[in-house]
Amino acid sequence: MTAVFLILFSWGMVAAKSRRQAISLAAAGAVAVMLISPPRVLAQGSLVGAIQAVLNVIHGVIKTSLNSINAVRSAISQFYQLTVWPQQLISQARSLITQTIGRYRSQLASIFNLNLKSASLPATQRLETVIRDAQTGDFGTLASNYSAVYGPLPTATTASPATRTLTDMDDALAEDTLKTLKESDDADNLTLGTADQIENAASQAAPGSAPFLTAASMAAAIESQALTQKLLAAELREEAAHLAHRNALRKQAAAFASQVSGSIQNSLQPQQ
Amino acid sequence: MKEAIKRVKAGLKLAIGWACDHRLRAAALVLVFLLALPRPVKSQFLDPCCVILAAGLSTISSTLSGVIGGGLNSVLSVDRTIQNFEQSVVWPQQLIAQAQALVGTLRGVSTQIQSVMRLPVASATLPASQQLEQNLLSANAGQIPNTDSAYTAVYGQLPATAQASPQSRNIMDMTDAIAQDAMKRAIEIDNLANLEIQAADQINQSIQTAAPGSAPILEAEADAWLVRANAYTQAATADLIRVRAAALAGRGADLKLGATNTQGLDQKLQNMLQPKQ
To answer: What is the DSSP-derived secondary structure letter of residue B125?
Structure first.
């Protein structure tokens, strides 16, 4: 490129016809050469300074920042391991649960499973057995055993319809409650099993898996509360029926008294 | 050879002659040729600038490896320790999976409890008592409007004005009212208990697919349900206490009425036994 320029420039200078043309061409050539000339080379002194500046940045700002980050990360790591989740305390908590299981579980079970039966006659023993067996497949046996102890419903000839209805309602609600209690006893055993399973899992849990067990325990507590409510509803029905029964007798007594009063008044009136 | 030297000499004479005749043009040509002259290239080995550059780059490289690389390695090492600690001690995947599996097992137990509690317990044999029993065990709050008629069919109507004193009628009506309220509350509570069991199952289902960070949120939801359930239990207990209070009040009222009636009967007998004028 430079050679072509020089050849053309030389030819132009030789071929220039006037002094003015030669001067113009010389000026243009000088300017062109100045423009295409290579850039200046930096002095040695400024290069050393630039390298030193880079080194200063590395040793200063970057090193300090990295050291700070490292210090913070180390502090976080220590905080986790010594304060938030100390391995020793986690192990202690697990072993506490294991100890609690060993110390209390069988004791609780033996107390809870004590034989409470107290009936002494054959019919009452049979009824007592069936109402305490925590089984739900023998409701039919419960009905017959109940009838054997508390007697059957009076026939239509031995009691008034009102009395028969009252008696039937009383028996029905008593039997309903006894059946509900059998269901509840069965559910209670399952709930106790759930508590055991959660406790077993807690004895091996990690801080990160414990929230699952806590949430599951809460869900089980809701269910347990719902079962308690069902028992409470049964008790409410029973107590309400008891009250209603007494009130029905009161109504019957009022009607009877009104009837007797009328009869006495009629019989005491002087005959014409 | 001599011929060539002669030609060069002749050429030089011609050029010098042209330069002498055109001094300005010759000077301009020399100037431009000098400006366009290629510059010397600096050697990589001998030039002191390159040596300094190489040494500087080498120092920067070793500094980067030592200071930044070392620092980053320390940070990485601490991060790896934290990661290892979190994965093996705080949130071990295996124990999380075990806890989730346990929740699945507990859901099975819960389903078992639900099926046990749904077994029919109805025992009445007569039509009126069967109807009331069906209503009371329905666990359906929508059935509450039918309780009054079913109750009356079993426990009888309030005596007419001519059959009982106003005081007696008040006592009987109040007693009936409290008994019916309690029966209606029992239907409500059964219905609510079933809904609570459903909600507990849904929460359990969510726990099975939860993360350690989202499980406490579900726990809070379960806590809220437990608080609500406790409130319902309290409401049912209040109704139970009302029934017992009404029973006690009824017994007291019976005594009071008995005393009044005895006095009235005594007066009537005295009037009857007095000799007629």
So the answer is: -
User: Is the pTM higher than 0.80?
Assistant: no
What is the rounded distance in angstroms from the CA atom of residue A8 to the CA atom of residue B33? 12
Specify the DSSP element, H or E, that contains A29.
Answer: helix A19-36
Q: Is A42's pLDDT higher than 70?
A: no
The domain limits of chain A are 2-84, 87-114+153-268
Contacts of A167 (CB under 8 A, 6+ apart): A153, A154, A159
Looking at CA atoms only, how far is residue A117 from chain B in angstroms?
Answer: 23
- Tell me the backbone φ, ψ of residue B120, rounded to 5 degrees: -70, 140
- Going by C-beta distance under 8 Å and a sequence separation of 6 or more, which residues neighbour residue A139? A179, A182, B119, B121
Chain B residues whose beta carbon lies within 8 Å of the beta carbon of residue A48? 52, 56
Please, are residues B95 and A209 in contact by the beta-carbon 8 Å criterion? yes
Spatial contact of B110 and A223, defined as CB atoms under 8 Å apart: yes
List the one residue out of B103, B100, B200, B230 whose CA is nearest residue A219: B200
**Residue A261 pLDDT greater than 90, yes or no:** no
ipTM of this predicted complex? 0.72
Dist. CA A18–CA A135, nearest whole Å: 131
Q: Taking a C-beta distance cutoff of 8 angstroms, is the pair B132, B150 a contact?
A: yes
Range 227-256 of B in CB contact (< 8 A) with A: 229-230, 232-233, 236-237, 239-240, 243-244, 246-247, 250, 254
Taking alpha carbons only, the member of B90, B82, B89 closest to residue A70 is: B82
Q: A76: closest CA among B68, B75, B93?
A: B75
A236 closest CA partner among B233, B157, B171 = B233
